[in-house]
Amino acid sequence: MSLRKFRFMQRSCVWGSVAVLVLQPQFLFAAEQPAARTPASSQAARAMSVVDVELQANGLLVGQLVDSQGRALSAAEIQLTSNQKRWNVLTDQQGRFQLEGMNGANYTVQSGQQVQLMRAWAPGTAPPSAAKGLLFVQSSDVVLAQNCA
Question: Which CATH code for domain 46-138?
Fold first, then answer.
């Protein structure tokens, strides 16, 4: 290879490297970590799970709102949201609620500060593990634990 070709290739490599570093500066900071999540948000993300619930005939969703001790919460507002639609319902004396005309879809269920993700299934289409109704626990002091002695 001639000296002329070698220098051309050398310059091309240098200019190519400069172009990459100018256009893609994240290569310079590859060791930099993204902003860390706070412990509370990490715990909330881990605690958030999707509950499968089978709707009854006519798209009837039945559920019960209780506190962390299992006591029914009466006259509490529950809000279900799916896409652009929102439903509000109040619980009865036993903490029970019903919503008719629901479709199989993903819903966000909220009461107070407590949020639960729910996947509603049309009658006869739910997996065997799906619940027949939604048990919604409202509490700010729910603690997840494993292998406690």
Answer: 2.60.40.10
Q: What is the pTM of this model?
A: 0.61
Q: Provide DSSP, the chain.
A: --HHHHHHHHHHHHHHHHHHHHH-GGGTTTTPPPPPPPHHHHHHHHH--EEEEE-BGGGBEEEEEEETTS-B-TT-EEEEEETTEEEEEE--TTSEEEE-S--SEEEEEEETTEEEEEEEE-TTTS-TT-BSSEEEEE-S-----SS--
Per-residue pLDDT, averaged over 142-148, amounts to 53
pLDDT of residue 3: 73
Average pLDDT estimate for 117-124? 93
